[in-house]
Amino acid sequence: MSLTLYNSLSRRKEPFETLTPGRVLMYCCGVTVYDYCHLGHARSYIVWDTVRRYLEWRGYAVQYVQNFTDIDDKILKRAREEQSTMAAVSEKYIAAYFEDMERLNIRKANAYPRATHALNGIQRLIHELEQKGIAYAAEGDVYYSVRSFPGYGKLSGRKLDDMQAGASGRVEVPESNHPESNHPESSHPESNHPEPNTSVPEPPDDPSAEPKKKDPFDFALWKAAKPEEPFWDSPWGAGRPGWHIECSAMVRDGLGEQIDIHVGGADLIFPHHENEIAQSEAVTGKSLARYWLHNGMVNVEGEKMSKSLGNFTTIRQLLDEPLAILEGDRFDPMALRLFVLQAQYRKPIDFTPEAISSAQISWQTLKAGLTFAQDFGNALGWTDLESDDSRAGLQNPSEVAQQAVQRFQSSMDDDFNSPGALAVLFELAKELRRAGNVINHVGKSDRDASDLRQEWQTLVDLSTVLGLEVLGLEAASAQEASGQAQVNSPEIEAMIAARTAARQSKNFAESDRLRDLLKAQGITLIDQPDGTTRWRQGSARP
RNA sequence: GGCGGCAUGGCCAAGUGGUAAGGCAGGAGCCUGCAAAGCUCUUACCCCCAGUUCGAAUCUGGGUGCCGCCUCCA
To answer: Do residues A147 and A90 share a domain?
Structure first.
């Protein structure tokens, strides 16, 4: 069995072969840090984190690098609004990024280069492009001459001439800028509409508005500094880098001239990744990345979630606010992860209340399987959970465990088909939940303890590959909860005895009253065929 | 207008030539004084039309609908 992945470059699934056996160099386009991350970002980074985890599980040593864009017009705009600086705004949202990602159990990259730390590499790259006659300076700006790179358009599958026709249709109304040109945005501060603001410092990419460009599709590698903006000295004068060049430079500095996998949102294919290829490959003469992978968008009511449409929900908003659809509960971060992984990564997913509640409940099911050892390990005599050889059983995996791993792998090998992989996890989790319920209700298991042990261990292992884990805090509180139950035990036993007496005298009204009383405290009673009554805490378990 | 993608049950979503995984949500029954759990059963004309084939959700052609990119965007 071999791993196959869909390469945006060829628009086909291809077998995965690394540049160096056993090693994967992987670069992920990160965020521009001017605001909190929304669900679109969450999806992207959950997906690529999962890909990275899977590659490692498959035995590859993965070097994973993800950048922060911390030089950008939007950051500057935010800094002006907050009477702050670009650096301060960046720091704030980088910190927020890490907080959000940690909650989603996204593992840290090996490196997080920032544009502001990559100026040397950026300038070197621009210089080399200039030497090769592909970049040209114009009044303090430097542009990339798109027509000098024969391969331009190979990733996005478009031709410059085709685009020109389309672009002209969009840019035909430059007059719309004029009426508002002397109305700063503060003239309508109460407006929450995310209308494109015509007073932003940078004009839209209107070819006619940038006469410095030789060709309308040329793009900026370096931008001359405007007054009161941060700048860096350069051979072309004071200024700052364009957006695309930073990734070319950071890939080269952090991973080398050629990498295995370059990933990012599908909305980055053009122009960002196309330009990145043009920049890097024109200099090195080598293909930049062997595989280009792009995740699908998160939609809201059929439309892409995006800043400009204003239809976004931030990660922290979704996780922190009690939700009506969840009857006032908060959305579990792992349920968000599940929501993302329940779709194949290239397909769009719709963010709806139904999807949220479905994911939340699904996570409860999976969690019941994951906490099986914690809940029932004692009952099954699993005393070695903490010890090093606790996984010894997996040396000789059972048929069920082997098949689960095999099915999981063959799904994931097929272009990271996580929905298929999840089906395997759910089958294991549901069986464990069933077995646990039987123990609760009958007092003993109807399954062989070591078989269950293997199924549980397999579930935990495979879930971890997808980053679906019961994290520390939750695990601790679950244990705490079971400890509490012990404390109240005598009181409960007394009530059960009273109820048993009532039942024996057929006083069912009293018997039901006591049942309801305990139920209100979260205690569920289980009458046994032999007339005795068992109980357990927690009525929520489905 | 150009390029790309998607259409499977109430919702989500696998399946890429041999008569439909899984999740969520439902229905019926057995069991129970009532419960809880368990068990059994149960819900698909795979967007439409034509073609290839012994056989297609799966391949080919045409159509319809939706989405993304072409402008900052995960």
So the answer is: yes
Distance A302 CA to B65 C1' (A): 13
CA–CA separation, A481 and A428 (whole Å):
25
Distance, angstroms, CA A441 to C1' B24? 26
Q: Report CA(A432)–C1'(B26) in Å, whole number.
A: 24
Domains contained in chain A, number: 3
Final residue before a domain boundary, out of A470, A504, A525 = A470
A32-73 pLDDT, tens digit each: 999 999 999 999 999 999 999 999 999 999 999 999 999 999
Q: Give the nucleotide at minimum CA-to-C1' distance from A40.
A: B74
Residue–nucleotide distance: A425 CA to B14 C1' (Å): 14
Return the closest nucleotide (C1') to the Cα of A156: B3
pLDDT of residue A488: 64
Q: Residue A290: which domain range?
A: 4-159+200-304
Which nucleotide is closest, CA of A366 to its C1'? Answer: B23
Residues A68 and A31 in one domain: yes
Instruction: Give the residue from A436, A470, A504 where a domain finishes.
Output: A470
Whether A149 is covered by a domain: the verdict is yes
Q: Where are the beta strands (DSSP E) in A29-74?
A: 61-66
Which amino acid would we find at residue A537? Q
Within 7 Å of a protein beta carbon, the nucleotides of strand B are: 1-6, 11-15, 21-25, 32-39, 66-74
Q: What is the pLDDT of residues A86-139, one digit of tens each?
A: 999 999 999 999 999 999 999 999 999 999 999 999 999 999 999 999 999 999
Closest C1' nucleotide to A307's CA: B73
Judge whether A219 and A275 are in contact, CB under 8 Å: yes
Structure tokens belonging to residue A147: 């027509």
Together in a domain, A520 and A418: no
Would you give the end-to-end CA distance of chain A in angstroms? Answer: 37
Q: Is residue A166 in some structural domain?
A: no
Determine the pLDDT at residue A477.
59
Please identify every stretch of chain A with a pLDDT value under 70, giving residue numbers as ranges. Answer: 1, 164-210, 386-394, 473-488, 538-542
Q: Give A494 CA → B24 C1' in Å.
A: 39
Read off the tokens for A461. Answer: 């292992």
**Residue A541's pLDDT is what?**
42
- Residue A498 tokens read as 């009273």
Do residues A398 and A429 share a domain? Answer: yes
Percent of chain A's residues with pLDDT above 90:
73
Nearest to A425 by CA among A456, A459, A394: A459
CA of A294 to C1' of B52 (A): 34
| Nucleotide nearest to A207 in CA–C1' terms | B71
Instruction: Return d(Cα A24, Cα A98) in angstroms, integer.
Output: 24
Q: What is the identity of the amino acid at A177?
A: N
Lookup: nucleotide whose C1' is closest to A30 CA: B74
| CA/C1' separation A237–B25 (Å) | 64
Domain shared by A125 and A247, yes or no: yes
A448 with A419, same domain: the answer is yes
> Residue with CA nearest B38 C1'?
A438
